[in-house]
Write a structure and sequence with these properties.
The protein contains two helices and four strands. The protein is of the alpha+beta class. The strands form two sheets. Strands 1-2 form a two-stranded antiparallel sheet. Strand 1 and strand 2 form a beta hairpin.
């Protein structure tokens, strides 16, 4: 991914409210996990991160920058586990929908 896009996504992540952590090097992802700029792509680093999708491509999400965010590796794994659980739940409960609308819902955009 281009450095310009990575920097833009990094800038959109939450800043830590602690003067000891420079916002140029430290941020928080969407679940509040600390991420470290120089640990991008490093799964072994305790604050490693990469770019993830807000709405997974498997759930109809697009590859636009508006659907991307920086995510700690644990956040990515947790979101995938929830997505799989939700998909299995929908398999066994196909007639259930949100408020009877029949709309397909995603557990990551706050609408369930």
């Amino acid at each position: 991914m281009e450095a310009k896009i990575l920097r833009a996504l990094w800038q959109s992540a939450a800043i830590l409210n602690d003067y000891r952590y420079s916002p140029n090097h430290w941020r928080r992802d969407s679940l509040g996990r600390m991420i470290y700029w120089f640990a991008c792509g490093d799964k072994k680093h305790p604050n490693g991160w990469d770019v993830g999708y807000i709405v997974a491509k498997a759930d109809g999400g697009c590859e636009e920058i508006s659907n991307m965010q920086v995510e700690h590796y644990e956040t990515t794994a947790e979101k995938e586990n929830v997505r799989r659980w939700f998909k299995n739940w929908r398999t066994y409960n196909p007639d259930l929908s949100v408020y009877g609308t029949g709309q397909r819902i995603s557990p990551f955009i706050g609408n369930f």
